[in-house]
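Checklist before submission:
- one chain only
- standard amino acids only
- sequence pasted in full

Submission:
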Amino acid sequence: LLHREDQEVSYGLNWAIAGRGVIVKDKVLHNLEISELQKGGATYLDCLSGIPLHVRGDVIGGIPDISKAQFAKLLKLVTFHLSSISCLYVQDGAIGSSSVCDAKVRIISDNPSAVMSLSNVLWKIPDRAISHDTSPLTIYATSSISNNIKTLLGSGTQYANGFAAADIERSSLILCGKAFADSAIVKDALTAMTAPILSARGGLPVPGWLLCFGGSIVLLFAPVEIIRSSSEIQNALLSFDCGAAISSKGSTVLFPTKAKREPKLFTKPTTVIIISSDSTGTIPSVSKLSPGRAAYHFLAGYHDGKFVPAYSRGPSPADPLALASSLFLHLKGGHTPAYLINAKHSGKYIDGKGFMKLLELAVSHNMPDIKTEDFRVGELKGKYRSFLSSKFGKCLPEEFSF
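Returned file contents:
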């Protein structure tokens, strides 16, 4: 017989899972360690890419959407399938490395391999932490897909390995087939789903990186290509994955892509660095920015003649202009210095060591506010103005400037 406490945990867990639409048929294996999952047959699949992701909600990023009715039908099929499985795997974790500002996540799956893979995306939390959370996310991971599920969203070779569907309003993510092995789309979906929760808890979720430099925490916004090209930058990052949240009590990274998965609250960033790449030399190697100029360059996300608003390439429910305005208030209210670094010199990308030297110069806070007024600056200003006007109209705050 189970001990009374174990019985209470079992009944409570079963009721909680039932609240997410899944009825426990036989047993639940809850929060197993990696070694225990491997004993149960879990293995790591080769990392996949290109799994289709559908997102329901007001998101920006060119992601194919899914209707409310489609998602409801899909969820019904998936929960019915999971309710027919004799042994369910349930794993809990969090997005965000601090309980001060995180989003709890519960995985319900028919496959130990899916649970093991997804566990590496989450921060560890105490066993019962999710039962005290007001708005946990749920991941439904089903490795076996019926024909009904396969044809619900479409057909073709792109669905051969499975697909992912997220509903931001329901705080639910469905992973069918081998979709759990595509960590990029899983993290994109979870980042979009957690943004409203982190914002409601006093955090400012941003598409940037936190790095530790000279004993201080630096918030970095950059094209992902720049990050991937430099081992020196990667070694300083607190997480390889893009995604951070800033609050009045400190800062946190969303995903634990380095060795330890125990949560930790980091101090608030003492400096904000924005990286652009400009081959013409119009943008100086490093220059100091006012809060308004920093928000303007952040909103533009300029990279080699192209613009990626707010540096956000994945699906996001946050409007780039609202995000830039929040960053402006954060910089202004906290008197946080901001700097712009040009990732190119003489038309070529600077190497990692060169970037770290510029970063050291910026963090020293001794940079002058450089202003260069020649025809190239006017031309680049015009490109910025033309793009941002076409994108955001007359909504730009007066404080935002080049």
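Reviewer check: Residues 1-8 have pLDDT under 50 and may be disordered.
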